[in-house]
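Reopening closed ticket. The problem is back. First fold of the pair:
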Amino acid sequence: MASSNPKKTSRTSSYPDPLIIAPLQAHKHTFIILHGRGSNATAFGPSVLNTRISETQTFQSSFPHAQFIFPTASKRRAQIYNRSVINQWFDNWSLQTPNERTELQAEGLRETSAYVHSLLRSAIDQVGADNVVLGGLSQGCAAALISLLTWNGEPIAAGFGLCGWLPFRMQLEEIASSESVADESGGGDDDLFESSGDAVDTAAPAQAIAFLCEELGLTAKDPPLSFQRIPLFMGHGVQDEKVPISLGREAVSCLKHLGTSVEWQEYEGLGHWYSDLMLSHLVGTLKETIGGNVRKDIADN
């Protein structure tokens, strides 16, 4: 189990102040979006917001009541790049072999999740959980997914991940699958008290999330399962040369085993980036999710 107070850290800086883009109209929603490895909020945020999803709409104008928060990852030493210092949410080894050296991920994921959770709490205080969205691109997607899986607050409106993967996916899915099989098989004639379907659905994810919390060195009295009530959108380019689409497909499979509702979209001809079509699909999904979820005290403004 990773220590919650490590003596050494690969992080060489704190998290810079996030880039905050004011809403075009009254503030009713908040989007928190994480950039990819090696990038930063200033380079990433404006390009996302200015992407045209139709002849008349950009991503930003599609959500005129949304405040957009683009955090920047702290600087950490990347082992795969000879310990060069770069902006990254956590350290990780080659995505061609994602199950190797997974111990590199724990420290950064623990610290980043705590940071993202603080942003979520602040946003919820302002607009309510039903009006908060968390997502990310590439490594930002991975960090956002882990932050959602370890979130123990109110379920937020939605989450999304673009061109990303799920750290510890293999272990999480193995635990969730084995627990599900064990529960569903029952105990034969010795199984005097047959479990309900709801009990099965809760037990398997709880075991997996307990493992994740232990790997990250997080203390949780009960494994958080808020994520099961947070709908997800996941999109990935079929020709992604940096994060193979197989990792996205595997992440979706795992998330479904954990009890999450996931919309999955693949984009033929797209490499490691988002496209106007991908963002258009994301906008459509999010509008359905947050369209009517405006707290009364801010709806009247």
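Second fold of the pair, where the issue appears:
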Amino acid sequence: MDTQTPSSATLVSRTSGNNPHNQPNNLPTFILERNTLFQKLKEKHNKTIAAKARAPVAVKLVTRAGDLSTELQVTAWEATPGHLLKHVTKEIAAEVVVARVDGVLWDLSRPLEQDCEVSYHSHNDPDRRAVFWHSAAHVLGETAEKYYGCLLSHGPPTTTGFFYDMALDADRAVKETDWAPLEASAKKYLKEKQKFERVIVSKDDLRNLFAYSKYKLHYVEKFVPDDGFTTVYRNGPLVDLCTGPHIQNTRQISAFKIKANSSAYFLNDPTNDSLQRISGVAFANAEQMKRWETSVAEAKARDHQVIGKRQKLF
């Protein structure tokens, strides 16, 4: 793999041409071109969904593991797990961000396709937390892509939050002084209630969509079979290769914090490019963030006490 990072001109070039679909006009050219193509692919995807037969299907709705189920009849390719939340209590509906359909994690806005069992997850469910943090990673990616004009690599959830790896200009690195403006931008995007839009895309179209990035093309070539398909998600101006699922919109995230930055090799291989990594954490409300900050501070205090005792400092 070529270890030369893209030039400044590639990363932050601007466009003076037309700006379809009201995209922010200070985005790099590669983002504007990518998003124009995405819009065409989305319209094609929507036509495919619209052509699906609207037939009645039976749904077994289970609000939580062990609860009694409800039998419903809905219309295939129209009804979504989000629509079915009206059949559960307000307390449960308020904390739901993702569903399972026949055991498979499923976007709340994704249509049901056939007879199935739909279930939801409690606030502390690990899968729910992973989906939530994965969506927050996309907000971080959106923020970084606009702030730096960078090329994104990948941005997964972790057991303690999420991160995104990215390629900046060779003479530039993420600094702690960047955190505040990045957080400010992210919080702006949260308030915009950006939807997470899911589109199925062929491998050939993926190659065109992500032609500007050797990092995204690596994942396309490695994980998508020839003549195959996978999904792409859009939130705001970010279009990302991703299997999902995601939360319904960015407003479901109320608290967002960057907690670290570092360097990381692409694919964790020291023979590849050295990328920049930004790590963060996010929650549905400020109280959850406050509890997290308290737990982190307490953990650090315990660590200092252990180290102090070992070194006989106190």
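Update: turned out to be a display glitch only; the data is intact. The first helix runs from residue 8 to 12. The CA atoms of residues 56 and 75 lie 5 Å apart. Please close again.
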